Amino acid sequence: MMAGLKMEPAMSVAHTIEEQLRSRKKPEVTALALKKMLIQEVEKNFGPEMAERLRGQTQAFEDIVVREGYRRRPFSKGVLVRSLEDAGFSMREAQTIARSLENRLRRSGVRSIDADELERRIAAEIEELFGPAARNRYAGRQALAGEIFVEEGEGEPRVPFSKGVLAQSVMAVGLSPDAAYRLARDVERRLRDSGSTVVKRDYLRKAVSEELMEEAGEEVARRYHLLRSIRRAVKPVHLLIGGVAGVGKSVLASALAYRLGITRMISTDAVREILRATIPKDLLPTLHTSSFESWRVLATPQKAEPSAALVMQGFRDQVSRVAVGLRAIQERSAREKTSLVVEGVHVVPGYMTHQYQHEVIQIPIMLVLEDEALHRDRFALRERETGGSRTSGAYAQYFSEIRLIQQHLIELARGAGVPLIPAENLDRAIDKGLEVIVDRLQEAYFDVVQG
């Protein structure tokens, strides 16, 4: 309907697409494929002009990503509504603003937006709908609310209570962003009802635990207590996320880093770029190619169609070179006692050990995408999201090599006992990743306690 269709023809298109989806053998469809089906159906029935208008918009089934530093989170109309209610708007007013803003963003084709720019657009939307006074009320919402401080003990430094920090903390135990923010707001209301502007850390933890118990059950509350204890008493975490191109490693890494409060994150491709900038191509040629075509520059006779052994030889050669830089980064983080997330195709079992490994909790996981068709679609989606800076052509040309490397990584992971996480649904991958992390941290915590 955002493209200009009336309700009845829009419902007709939706019904036709639903029938097409039901006739498919696969139960899932990617956002990219669904949008393609929608555009084709609209073009067939309503012409190219309407289809082109639709193509330039962000549909309701496509996420709008909010960028905040290195963090990425999906835009949530529900979270915005609650934020507006906190600023003094009625539920009806908050819903009107949130709905109007989302429609405006989607009509403009916005797929990602900086948090600061989103704030400016929210303020502008409020002013357009309710006037300058309402905008000022929203801008001054934190001052109007009054600040609550949290202290560890009597006389110790106090820190401001933050709903955002608390929401991030409880997301680490598996709550969705929407549920986490709702819980954080309920906790804030509870703190304000206590009548004090300063609360003890123990009181805050108790309040969070009780809200978690009610919201998600005893197991989630227990997991929250465990994670809080671990963060304060155990070694830093080194989370290592492996997987081939196109499976969603960077998305998973950003989501898990945000939920765990880890601020240091690095891609192995970035390490490779640094190495290739300092080491000449004629000295280490495999550093200067993609991992799936490193076989081309090996000192061996070239073939139009490489054998599996040759592809793997080139891949392992590049991994061994990048591992030198990764080892230095891991060792420095271990010495500095800082947590770290490393993601990339060069995170390979057998290459990530270092001399200070006993000083950290190392958690390796391998992200895999079994569905070949979905894997191809991911490359096309990434090309579009990056404005063509990462074209899908090379990935399509070497797709069989990429799949071959994935199979090799799967075998290595199984042999080393590294958890395999399916990447078909990234939300479920995040949940599974959190589950693996909590289990490993629990083991480490009990090892420390027993020690």
From TrEMBL:
InterPro entries: ATP-cone_dom, P-loop_NTPase. GO terms for molecular function: ATP binding. Keywords: ATP-binding, Nucleotide-binding. The keyword Nucleotide-binding applies. Residues 62-146, 148-235 form the ATP-cone domain. SUPFAM superfamilies: P-loop containing nucleoside triphosphate hydrolases. It comes from the Bacteria. Signal peptide: none annotated. Transmembrane segments: none annotated. This is ATP-cone domain protein.
